[in-house]
Amino acid sequence: MHSIALPVPRQVKKKNQSGIPFRIALEEITCVFPIVSNRTEKIQLQPSDRISLQSASDETIITLFQGGEKEVYRLLVDRYQERVRNLLYSIFHEQDFIADLAQDVFIKAYQALPYFRFESSFYTWLYRIAVNKSRDELRRRKLRRFFSFQALDEGVAQELEFKMSTPPENRDAHEIVSMGLKLLPEKFRTAIILKDIEGLSYEEIADVMQCELGTVKSRLSRGRTMLRKAVKPLLEEVTE
Amino acid sequence: MKTLSQNEKSELLSRFVDGQVSDEERKTVEQLSASDNAVKQELQELWRLQTLLAASAKLKPDIGFATRLAAMLNDQRREEENLLPVPRKYFPGLIAVGSVAMLFIAIAFFPKRASMSRVFVLQSQAVKEVVDNNFMKSAILPLFTSVNRDQALQFALFGSVPIDDKNNASLNVDDQAERGYRIEVTKAKTPRRKTLTVEDLMAEVQPTRNQREAIDSILDLTRGRIQSSILFGDGDFVAVDPELPRLNKALVGNIASCLTEKQQTRFEKLLKLHNCTNLAHFTRTRAAQLPAMTRGLARASRSQQFMVITPETLVFANIAVDFDAISRQIEAQEQMRKVVLERRDRFIERALRAVATNDAPRGLPNLDEMPDIFRIDVQPNLDSPSAPLAKSVRPGVRGKPGFGGFHFQVTAGGAENQMMHIQVFNPSMTHSQMNSRGDSETVDPQILVRRLRIQRAKLDSLLRAIQE
Known about the structure:
- Chain A is an all-alpha fold.
- Chain A has helices at residues 10-17, 22-32, 47-53, 58-66, 73-92, 95-112, 122-147, 155-165, 173-183, 186-197, 202-209, 213-239.
- The radius of gyration of chain A is 22 Å and the shape is elongated.
- By secondary structure, chain B is an alpha+beta fold.
- Chain B has 17 helices and twelve strands.
- Chain B has helices at 6-18, 23-35, 37-54, 65-83, 91-109, 113-136, 149-158, 198-205, 209-227, 246-258, 261-273, 290-301, 323-332, 334-359, 395-398, 431-434, 445-467, and strands at residues 140-142, 160-164, 169-174, 181-187, 230-233, 237-240, 305-309, 314-319, 372-380, 406-411, 421-425, 442-443.
- In chain B, strands 1-5-6-7-8-12 form a six-stranded mixed β-sheet. A six-stranded antiparallel β-sheet of chain B has the order 2-3-4-9-10-11.
- In chain B, strand 7 (305-309) and strand 8 (314-319) form a beta hairpin.
- The N and C termini of chain B lie far apart (117 Å).
- The model of chain B is unreliable at 355-371, 381-405 and 412-443 (pLDDT under 50).
- The A-B interface holds A 73-74, 77-78, 81-82, 85-86, 89-90, 95, 98-99, 102-103, 106-107, 110, 173-174, 177-178, 181, 192-193, 195-197, 199, 202, 217-218, 220-222, 224-225, 227-228, 231-232, 235 and B 7, 10-11, 13-15, 18, 20, 42, 45-46, 48-50, 52-59, 61-62, 65-66, 68-70, 72-73, 76.
């Protein structure tokens, strides 16, 4: 087997020194391209390689992407689109709008991926982009509501009111919690979604939300207290 | 066990349900839960919430998502490529060629860098000169640029406004002259008397909030009026609003009419205490409505008729200048303010020299010793038997039949250089005739400047012919 000259970013080398399993990634790549000749030109993927890449790690795919093989990006999209869409859905609860926002997230990630420095895992990095995008969107909505002089987005309050007015037997505990979640301020809501729905660790949440670990703990605690108080009467009715 | 606050307890429980507690903390939570029902219930609620959230509705997989995204990315890439003038693959080559070209240009110009920087310096100087010569030169500028409320009050009470502290120069309007009034710009040798500030006035009369606002707006109107009353321009002319002396009276009267009877008494006492020269204007009036008073002041400030004085001539002219715009510009631009102040200083000196040269051809007097920069005395024309003892020069009055007109005596340069101008206006010789133009014509400032220059040139040539 010939050795291949992969365009490895400097950051990867650094990471490798600090213990990230770069060797494994390299081995994976050499397995992916078994018939590659003594090459220094751009990597050309064969159809069979693509199949092998399905099981490649995120780091491997990103390294290939940064080496000029832009088509591998689709693998990352396939891998994470559902999680990103669900994250955004948990934040906004608007199915139609989520598709556009998720596309924006992946376009932004595509543009920024050449500069990805392997300092965090890809999915926390992608979540960070998604959270920032949703923050922008929430800010935009707030502004629009401010400048329109009437609450265009009164949906939340109205919906909760609707839930309250519907007979208890028709209410669903999941829906009540989701609606209560939507009423929380953005920073508390995002922390709870990342922890309880997406199952991220405290450290990963701190990375996504770009804040300290202590802040994550406090946001989770305060958010849960607020949510608990908001939905408690409704949940009691459902239980009864 | 340490007593925990409610917040600490909540955070501990929150971490507990996440499994992020130490052994010791776990024991604490278990103890709390066993002993405190509220804690137990909170824990149960937290677990329930967590379970409900974890099982919250998920979206169905979107099969076409990646394809749509790929199409969008392709469109975007194509758009970017269409925007570029050359294919992207030539970029590295183009950048390399460009860098080499820049290097050559830099090397070629390196020995001449001194001359190049000189070109830039000369160009910027040239631009500055063009602005100075063409834009600023023919401009008519106000002599006062930043009169504050205190100065406006001082003017109302003492008839004096300082032009600047550096030269101790001030504008004095004396309406107490026997049969006329005097406007003078003076360089006082002695320090000015102690001034009466707005705060002193307020402390004495103790106005209500409304009264205070009324007085402030009257003072603001007066500030604007003073600033627009005396103009100067290139070609050594000064333009004075002949209505200026009426301002004192209007101001003192208006302030008094804002006050109650008791306050008026205190105000009068204050004026006496400070030996106000314009005490005569103080008359006890009934409190007036503010709009009526300010309307009167505003109307007075709309006058556009000015006495335009040069070393050779005295004419009346309507000068239409947008003072608000000029003031705004001057206030907004530090550079502009500097230029105006420089030009004002130059003007004062130049006017003084011109006057002194004309009047004292044997040699320039020592400028520092001159007490007056210029003075305008306006007196009714006593030659006419029907002359009224009017104290003001108003365009309407001048046109009345049987009115004998006024003497205008403009003096500059102190006692040695008296009698600069003596001009008589009467109904048969109006300013329009003097100007050989139509009556009540509004003169464009630039045309006025040009006209004055022509007059001056004519007089210069006449003077030379006489001397020869």
